[in-house]
Input
Amino acid sequence: MDDLRDKYLTLINDAGDEAALEELRVQAVGKKGEISLKMRELGKMTPDERQVAGPKLNALKDEINAALAAKKAALADAALEARLSEEWLDVTLPARPQRQGSIHPISQVTEEITAIFADMGFAVAEGPQIDTDWYVFDALNIPSHHPARAEMDTFYMHRDEADERAPHILRTHTSPVQIRSMEKQGAPIRVIAPGRVYRADYDQTHTPMFHQVEGLCIDKDISMANLKWVLEEFVKAFFEVDDVELRFRASHFPFTEPSAEVDIQCSWEGGVLKVGEGDDWLEVLGSGMVHPDVLRNAGVDPDEYQGFAFGIGIDRLAMLKYGIPDLRAFFDADLRWLKHYGFAPLEAPALHSGLSK
Output
């Protein structure tokens, strides 16, 4: 049996293909194979001899069958490897060029504004986009008959006629954050509140949703002179010019008194805006001293504190600075437009390194 074992294990190991391996299987364990013939001889043995030889023959048969199966699997693997190497075809996708996303102009300008006012000591405050009419209108000294409260201008949330709770609306400006910030922090306070706002309007320079930043500074000795300086520094830093002249025009806002529209000196040459030069004027924002009633509604004593507030349209500033002609394109999700007007990611605007890259 040992001779048979050594003989067939050697032959199986040396077999070069499956045909040769099949031939060896027939010779060893086929019906007329050598091991099968040995199994038939068990009937001629005595019981004691069968008890010794039977287990050995079964073990030999199992070992040969296992060797045949292992060699067959090895030959199959080798044949498949050879076939794959001969018939190789790359079915994977070709390597794609490395793509890098772009920062949307609204996000870029918001970060620029934040960086400028942070340098002047303003913190960033946030508030809900759906708020009650108390925070959006009443607390800001906007009377019930004011046209801004009409449904043709403001998006009101649906409610049942029997609902006695205060109406909820999509905020029309970020000024409600003023009230919430003063309620929470009190005075003195110095914050800006950038965010989305909503008004029922849609054309080349207006969309139902747009972005605004509100600024608020309250202390015991704040005056219009402080407001003028802050806005001048902001305009110079944002448009990256050395000097610019601002013009304050008397206006009226329910939440400020006195109130002023602010124009910047500019020129238009070939349709290109140049800030800080020329004889033209461009309106950019509204501002004024916070009305005493607004301070009182926010829990701040107007006899002790006073301050200024201003509101700037972020979308409008982006259009002016980067020459974007149509506000509606901001929301079209056109990748070609974003690739043209977008900004490199991971380059945070900073005054010391330049706002726009």
